[in-house]
């Protein structure tokens, strides 16, 4: 049946996504301080692993689940995030955003094929509204963004892997959030290191050791106050409200990003942004309000 705190969890997902829409602000601060390119992503994932490692060791010594035993989930969701972040270094930002934000489509496909769910016209309407809204906001000058480069394909892979990770979290029944959180950062860090080995030239210049030392307190504060809480909400929520809903609600990241950039970075905010943001918001509201009472509702029941 629907989780008793269904609406509260949905609000939590929107807030987490909204904070990710503001992610560009600390990223620019770190970049101006000398942490350029893909090194920011790598240090943030590794920093989160270091912060969580003592708790993982404590849980391991007590015989509790740590998340190391969740490699499929970790590689999917953590690897999806790393591919998405890396794609910005290898393709246009707009193309990366558009291709990654196909994630709600992937999520719905995964729900239908692997979780045996079907939401009928409701999901068709919300998906259509959300994707049209995304295209109006950031795709008006791009057209249909067919993948044409390594960066494009990384963005597509990032969206598909991330949606797969959300579906995996939905299917798992865990007693707490720590295992999925540690798995995300641990296996995401492994993917980040592997990508760095193959795409090292695209990461930008390696920061000096003195820069890392100077920034390390701020990096740990950032991981503790932002990275870990938002990913905890993202990784924990699917098993309580559903895969597709989480991916659609996470489009709030785009709304917060566009609005904040218009306010603090003098980015354009015209009728394209207003209409597109309105459609995305409408899609999320419809998806939440029309969600069935039982999120495992089958095709026969829905029919």
SSE blueprint and pairings:
Elements: H1 6-21, H2 24-32, H3 39-61, H4 71-87, H5 93-100, H6 103-114, H7 121-138, H8 150-171, H9 178-198, H10 209-236, H11 238-241, H12 243-249, H13 252-264, H14 271-289, H15 299-302
Report on this structure:
With 303 residues, the chain is mainly alpha-helical. The chain has one domain. Helices cover 73% and strands 0% of the residues. It contains 15 helices and no strands. It has helices spanning 6-21, 24-32, 39-61, 71-87, 93-100, 103-114, 121-138, 150-171, 178-198, 209-236, 238-241, 243-249, 252-264, 271-289, 299-302. Helix 3 packs across helix 10 (209-236), helix 6 (103-114) packs across helix 8 and helix 8 (150-171) packs across helix 12 (243-249).
Total domain units = 1
Helix content: over 70%
- Model regions low in confidence, pLDDT < 50 over at least 5 residues: 295-303
Average pLDDT, rounded to a whole number, is 84
């Amino acid at each position: 049946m629907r989780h008793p705190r269904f609406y509260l969890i949905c609000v939590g997902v929107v807030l987490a996504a909204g904070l990710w829409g503001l992610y560009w602000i600390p990223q620019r601060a770190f970049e101006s301080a000398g942490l350029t390119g893909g090194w920011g992503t790598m240090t943030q994932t590794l920093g989160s692993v270091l912060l969580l490692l003592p708790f993982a060791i404590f849980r391991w010594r007590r015989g509790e689940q740590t998340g190391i035993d969740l490699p499929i989930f970790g590689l999917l969701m953590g690897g999806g995030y790393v591919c998405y972040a890396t794609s910005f270094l290898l393709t246009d930002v707009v193309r990366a955003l558009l291709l990654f934000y196909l994630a709600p489509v992937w999520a719905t496909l995964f729900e239908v094929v692997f979780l045996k769910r079907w939401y009928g016209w409701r999901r068709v309407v919300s998906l259509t509204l959300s994707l049209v809204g995304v295209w109006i906001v950031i795709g008006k000058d791009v057209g249909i963004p067919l993948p044409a480069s390594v960066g494009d394909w990384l963005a597509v892979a990032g969206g598909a892997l991330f949606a797969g990770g959300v579906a995996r979290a939905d299917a798992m029944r865990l007693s707490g959030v720590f295992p999925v959180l540690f798995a995300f950062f641990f296996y995401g860090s492994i993917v980040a290191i592997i990508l760095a080995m193959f795409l090292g030239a695209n990461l930008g210049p390696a920061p000096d050791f003195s820069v890392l030392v100077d920034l390390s307190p701020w990096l740990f504060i950032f991981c503790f106050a932002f990275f870990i809480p938002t990913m905890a909400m993202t990784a924990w929520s699917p098993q309580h409200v559903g895969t597709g809903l989480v991916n659609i609600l996470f489009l709030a990241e785009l709304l917060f990003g566009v609005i904040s950039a218009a306010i603090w970075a003098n980015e354009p905010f015209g009728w394209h942004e207003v209409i597109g943001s309105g459609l995305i918001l409408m899609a999320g509201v419809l998806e939440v309000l029309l969600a069935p009472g039982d999120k495992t509702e089958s095709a026969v029941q829905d029919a």
